[in-house]
Each structure stands twice: as C-alpha cells, then as structure tokens.
Amino acid sequence: MIKGSMKSILALSLGGAVLLSGPIAYAQDQDGSDATQRVSSVYRLMDEVTVTARKREEGLQSAPIAITALTGESLEARGATRLDEIAKFSPNVTFQNNPGFSGASSSAAIYIRGIGQQDFLPTVEPGVGLYVDGVYIARSVGSVLDLMDIERIEILRGPQGTLFGRNTIGGAISVTTIKPSDEFSGKVDFTFGTDKRIDAKGVVNIPLSDKLFLKVAFASLNQDGYVERSFDGIELGDRDSVSGRAALRWVPNDRLEVNLVFDGTRSRENGPALTLTDIRLNKLNSPELNSVLFNPVDANGNFDPTKLNIPFDAPADNFALLHNYLATFLGGQDCLGLVPGQPIDAGGNPNNPACYNEQFIANDETNAGTAPSFSNIDIWGLALTIDYDINENVSIKSITSYREIDAQAARDGDHSPHIIAQFFDDFQQEQFSQELQLSVNALDDRLNWITGFYYFQEEGLNENLLEFVPADFRSGGSFDNQNWAIFTQATYNITDQLSVTAGIRYTDEKKKFLPDQIIFADRTFGLRPDGTLGPLFGEGTRILPFVEVETSISEFTPMVNVAYEFENALIYATYSEGFKSGGFNQRVFPPLPETPSFDPEFAKVFEVGVKYETADKKLRVNFAAFHTDYDDLQVQIFRDVAPITTNAASAKIVGFELELAANPFEGTFVELAVGLTDADFKKIDERATEINLDSKFERISKWTLSAGVSHEFAVGNGAYLVPRVDWAYRSGFYNDALNSPEIYQPSFHLLNANVAWQAADDQYSVTVGVTNLTNEDYLQSGIYSSTFNAAESLFNRGREWFINIKVNM
Questions:
Q1: Furthest CA-CA distance within the chain
Q2: pLDDT of residue 9
Q3: What's the confidence (pLDDT) of residue 41?
C-alpha cells in the first residue's frame, strides 16, 4: 500500500520537475558548494551559521528562536562521530542510546527541556522530532545516526509544527547533509582507537554535467565490545555497521532544483553492554514480607514445614523469588535456606548455581547471561526534494519520502543461566511522507509567509517474544498510523527593527493497533475458576483480545513571536503550544479483557530570549528563558512484567539556556554553554499512583554545562597545530519515572582532549585524542523492575584514545 503510493508520487514529482526545467538560463551561483577551509581554523568556528529553522536562510543571530546550530567543522573539531554526542555540548538536551527492553544497540531516547520519550514502541510517539534533510524519522530504532558528510545540525527548542513536518511537543533535531556540487572532490577518513576500533569513511563528489551532480558517501564502523559474556565469550557493546548515501542533484536552470537521495544502514552487533548490578532478594528478608510471600513461616518469619502448601505459596508477582521457590520445592535445591526455627534466607545459597542471587552480579565488564544476545538492524530510505521558484517572490517545495526498518534484537534480562527474563524483539516498519510548502515574500519583503500541507503514514509489525519464569508468550502486534496537517506562519516586519510572527497548525491523527498476543507455555499452577487445579491460563490463551483498536485526535496548535533587532542585538518573546498523541500499551501480562490505552499530552510554552554579537564578531552570547505548563504528561511506569505508558500528572518546567562563543585573542576559540531545567509535578493523576509530587522527571539533569577551548599554532611550512580541550557536566538524574535508586546516576564530569595537525594545502590532517580523559564511570541507561527484583545497568565504555587521519582530494 505505502510502496504503491510512493512510486506514484515519485513518478508525478519527477515528471513535474522535468516540465518545470524549461529553457531557462543555468544558475551561475550554486548552493551546497563543497568548497571548504581548514577544519583546524579556529576562526571558522566563529563564523555565523546559516540556519533554515524558519524555512528560509538566515543567520543564527537573526533568527528570533531558541536554537543551537552545530556545523560539520565544529563537530569534527570536537571529535564527535555519532548523533547522540551532541548532548554533551548542547544545554538542556538529553540524547541517550537507550536499549530499553528491546535490546537494540541503536535506539534513541531524546529529551529537550525535560520533554521527550524513551521507548521505541510504534504505539508511543517521540516527544522530540528527528529530521534528516527535511525528512521526519518516525522511530527511534536505528536513529543514533553516524555523522557522515554533515553540513550542520540544528537543535530547535519548544513545540514545532507551524513551519514543517510532524507536530512535536518538545522540540526537533534537524540534520542537514552537504549537497552535491559542481566541482570534483573527495575525502577519505580513517579512525583507529580503543578496543580495536577501525572506522573508515569516504565521500566523493562527481559533476556528471554542468547541471547534474552526484555524491556518494560510505562509512564502515567497527569496534570490539567492552562487556564480556562469561558463558560464550561474546563481547557486548560492540559496533559493526555499514552505511551509505547516494545523492543526485539536478539544477537545470536558476529556478528549479531537484535532489534525490538514497541512504541505507546495516548493523550486525552483539547487543548493548548491559550488566546486572543489583538483586534485591536478601534485602526483602523480613518477617512481614516473608509472611506475605511464603505461607510456610510462623509469625516470626521462621520456616515451618508443617505450613508448607506446595505449590500455592509461590510468589507469582516476584520472578526472582519464584525461581528460587520452585527450585527449592520442586527441584530439590536449597535456594531459600530452609532451616526449621530459622528465618527464610530469600537469597538462598550463593554457591549453588541453581539459585538466582548475587552470585551473578559480577562487575561492569562481565555478563553471566546465556540466552541469545544480538542486535540486527537494516534501514533504507529514499527522498525526493523539489524546489521551484515561480518568481522572485513565490516558491514551492515538495518533499517526498519512503523509509523501511527491519530489526531484530534479543537479550538475556536476568544475566544468568536461568529462564527468568529473556527478551526477543522483531520490529518492521514502513513509512511514507509527503510535504508541500508555498513560500511568499510580499510588501517589499516586509511580509514573509509560508503555508504547507503534510501527510504521514506508517504501518508495520512489532512482536515481543518473552520467556519468563511463569510463562512464555508473544506480546505486540501490528500498527497503522496516519497523520495529516495544514500549517501556516507569517512574519511581518512592522519596522526595520520590529517584527511580529504568527502561525497555526491543524493536525488530524489516527492510530490503529491490532494486538496479536498469545501464551506459548504456561508454567503457572493454582486453583482455576472452574475449581480444578492446573495452569492458570493455558497454552494458546490470548493475552489481549484479537481486536483492532483505534484512537484519534484533531488539534489546533498556535505560535506567536515578537522580535526587536538592535544594531548588535536581538530580543524576542514567544508563546507556542504543542501536543503528543495518545496510544496503546502493547507489553501486557497477565491477560486483560481489553487493550489498555493512554491519552494525549499537551504543553504551553512561554519564552523570552536575547542574542548579542559584538561589531567585530569576536563575541557571541545567546540567552533564552522558558516556562512550560505541561498537562496530562505521559510517563513510563513498570507494572507487572513490563513498563507501560500512562498519563501521570500536570507539571511546570522552568529554565534557561546560555551559550557563548568568543575569539578572545588571536588564534584562540572559547565556547561555554549552561542549561537549567527545573521540572516539578503540580498534580498527580489517579492513574499513576507509583509517583508523587516529590518525584523527579526521568533522565533529566537540572544542570547541564559544557565548555571548550582551542588555540591554533603555526608549525612551519604553512601547517598548523590545534590543541583542543572540552569539558561537560551533568547533575544527577534518575533513569526511570519511579526514581529507583538502583539506577540513579549522580552528577559527573567528562573531559576530552585532542590535538589536530593540518597541512597548509588542506589536503591532509591528523588528529590524536582522548575522550573521557579522567576515566569517569557513569550510567548511560538502566532498567529496574520489582517484578524481576533486579537492576540492569548500561555503563559507558570508559577512557578511549583515537587517531584520525583525513585526506582531501
């Protein structure tokens, strides 16, 4: 269905482009030239970035919005190679490579100003939109992109939607690649480093004619893992991916430009480097809890064999204890320390491998799991962008895109030889989007107006196969989501200094979900409703009814902005609204009579900002303060066997961003960023009893700080040496909405350093660097479940060294 629509629209778009080509004179000034300067030049880092966040080219300092813009040169100067690294030097941004329950090695959890979403499920929408060359990337699986041939990255804060793409409540990250140009050029890039890291990248630009240009980019990334499984020796946290992009640019005249881009990524990895860091068994050993969990105890919590009532006393809501209980009473093992007259030892015998306890907690470099562990992801996409200037004041733009994801992942959630919590995930998605924009300049350029239409459809299948102590079953199902919107935004320059902008968006969204969830093996046992003894559910039982469910929403979201420009400064104020649609919970057990759902969430944001730059362009300071009223916010809470999404509360988020860049004296570049996100719950919904007014937002640091300094030295023969030091700080944060202390990350610092040598002719460069110079050990992500009674943690790799060699042609 989607593929057929894509072929038809691509054919119509290309046909229209040919008709528009006409015998008009060829444009002499091409956009997207590959002409570059030395990456090591600190002066280039102070050049004002041209951004297109408002769908027209303008300088960063002239755009009255809260935006961080990072050029490809600045990313290379920092040694950044993956998209998630931008959070280290972007205030109030969280970008974690979060495997979650899926076990996928590349799955993004992105938050801006406290708003985002950590789950990749297709029944849950992201809070921050990700775009590549104007194309919306709907799902977080595979979206921790490799930075390859990047022109710039724009981080837009606050609700987006009156100018382009999908409605997003928290903000957007827009990645723009370098277009093909009319000059032959090329570059190869090799990086060698810690854990046998070998990265190879290449780009070649070929002018096929004076009007048709081709660019091909390729990357191969390889690195050993840093957590070893003692069972089979495989290394978790490895990298093994190949990606490529081919871009064709056609400029038949000075009014028409056509860009056709194909991209693809293939990764075959062992899965994320999760380790078991805590088991809570012995910490639950109290007479009160033992009396609840196990009937065969007396009032003091001592074991009393006469009270034993196998198997009805098994703690079915606690998988770790259930395993030890069954191993003891049905398997003949001593996993509970059953001694008459003595309290039960919930941890059992730490020397008995048949028991599940602290013996499987090793360290942050070892994993005792035995179940399959892998992450296989295949992604490809095709995008056609057509820009046509009807005249000097009116232009139209079309963006047509089709993308596919085919991903499988597996992991051993209990990190032991036992079947307590093992996960398999199959994710298949197809998405199609079509965007049309009409831009108008009128009234002697005092009025800039854009209006557009956006259509998006995705469909696919997400199956979650799970093996738990009480049962093996399949969760998930098929999905079909559709979204269309019309939007408009206009800026009127009342005077040369004062401008007013207003915009509005209407969004209509429908989501369908067909649960296909069934129990394969039932190891429960007890008294059934018919009075007989046996498995409580039975093989073949459906967990949710095999009935398609649907939810929809239609919403208007406005934006108003007032800006005043001084000689070297700009002040502005903005009010905007955004929402994120509701959805369904697909991870469910035990069986329920209907599919659980959750409602949309809404945000209203007030923002004021100041941008200042000295006349000599040697100091740039940008500041923005914001206040967000956040209603019906969606949180992920662990219930029963899996995390579910529910509407939790209303909240208030206040904060600011301060970004500074300077050339304090010749050859020196300094930058500083400070972010504050202060989020507080104001009212708790009755559906989220697990949190309270004192709970903290998950994955959100109150303070984010970063700084960088570099200096350029001439070393003879026209070559330069540029040492650089970068520092980043994050205050402490919880990794889940329940604020589990087991996966809390205290505040930490990161220090990176590198030295780059660049030849005078810009043909060669060599960079030697170290990331995490102080070898800081910090938690990137974590999972804690009271049902499994265990904590899983994903730590960073630690200190790394690298050598990068670039050759420009």
A1: 98
A2: 47
A3: 59
Taking CB atoms within 8 Å and a gap of at least 24, the contacts of 390-398 are: 390/255, 392/441, 393/440, 393/441, 393/442, 394/438, 394/439, 394/440, 394/441, 395/438, 395/439, 396/436, 396/437, 396/438, 396/439, 397/435, 397/436, 397/437, 397/439, 398/13, 398/434, 398/435, 398/436, 398/437
Residue 30 amino acid letter: Q
Using DSSP's 3-state secondary structure scheme, residue 474 falls into strand
pLDDT in tens, 227-261: 999 999 999 999 999 999 999 999 999 999 999 99
What the chain holds in terms of domains, given with CATH numbers, is 185-277+367-808 (2.40.170.20)
CA atoms of 690 and 734, how far apart (whole Å): 15
Single-letter code of the amino acid located at 656: F
294 pLDDT higher than 50? no
Tokens of 208: 């096929």
CB 324 within 8 A of CB 318: no
Look at the block and give the residue holding tokens 């969280």: 94
Residue from 205, 199, 217, 188 nearest 765 by CA? 188
Tell me how long the chain is.
809
The whole-angstrom separation of Cα 41 and Cα 60 is 20
Report the pLDDT value the prediction gives residue 293, as an integer from 0 to 100: 41
pLDDT for residue 289: 38
Residue 669 is encoded by which pair of tokens? Answer: 């570049």
Mean of the pLDDT values across residues 194-213? Answer: 97
**Please, are residues 722 and 713 in contact by the beta-carbon 8 Å criterion?**
yes
Cα–Cα distance for residue pair 102/95, rounded to 1 Å: 17
Q: What b/e sequence results for 621-635 when a residue is b if at least 16 CB atoms lie within 10 Å of its CB, and e otherwise?
A: bbbbbbebebbbbbb
Question: What amino acid occupies position 115?
Answer: I
Q: Checking DSSP bridges between strand 549-565 and strand 533-534, what pairing results, if any? A: unpaired
The identity of residue 87, as a single letter, is A
According to DSSP, residue 27 is labeled P
- Classify residue 77 as exposed, middle or buried by CB count within 10 Å of its CB (0-12, 13-18, 19+): buried
- Torsion angles phi and psi, residue 78, rounded to 5: -85, -10
Residue 525 has pLDDT above 80, yes or no: no
d(CA 453, CA 487): 6
413: its two tokens: 């959630």
DSSP string, 316-381: TT-HHHHHHHHHHHTT----S---BTSB--TT--TT-TTS-SGGG---TTEE---S--EEEEEEEE
Q: What is the CA radius of gyration of the chain?
A: 28
Note the pLDDT of residue 365: 86
Element (H, E) at 16: helix 2-21
Q: How confident is the model at residue 268 (pLDDT cuts 50, 70, 90)?
A: very high
Query: What does the alpha-carbon distance between residue 691 and residue 693 come to, in Å, rounded to a whole number?
Result: 7
Task: Give the Cβ contact number of residue 19 at 10 Å.
Answer: 9
* Statement: residue 150 has pLDDT above 50: yes
* Element of type H or E holding 9: helix 2-21
Q: Could you tell me if 197 and 81 are in contact, meaning their C-beta atoms sit under 8 angstroms apart?
A: no
Sequence-distant (≥ 6) Cβ neighbours of residue 495 within 8 angstroms: none
Position 23 scores a pLDDT of: 38
Worst-scoring range by mean pLDDT, 184-198, 533-547, 767-781?
533-547
Burial of 378 (0-12, 13-18, 19+ CB in 10 A): middle
Q: Which of 50-54, 176-180, 544-548, 658-662 has the lowest mean pLDDT?
A: 50-54
Contacts of 686 (CB under 8 A, 6+ apart): none
The position carrying tokens 């329950």 is 101
**555 token code pair:** 């919403």
What is the dihedral sign for C-alpha 798, 119, 477, 145? negative
Cβ-contact 435, 164 below 8 angstroms = yes
Kindly state the percentage of the chain with pLDDT values over 70.
87
Judge contact between 586 and 515, C-beta under 8 A.
yes
Three-class DSSP category at 514: strand
Sheet containing strand 366-367, strands side by side: 235-236, 227-229, 366-367
* Average pLDDT value over all residues in the chain: 86
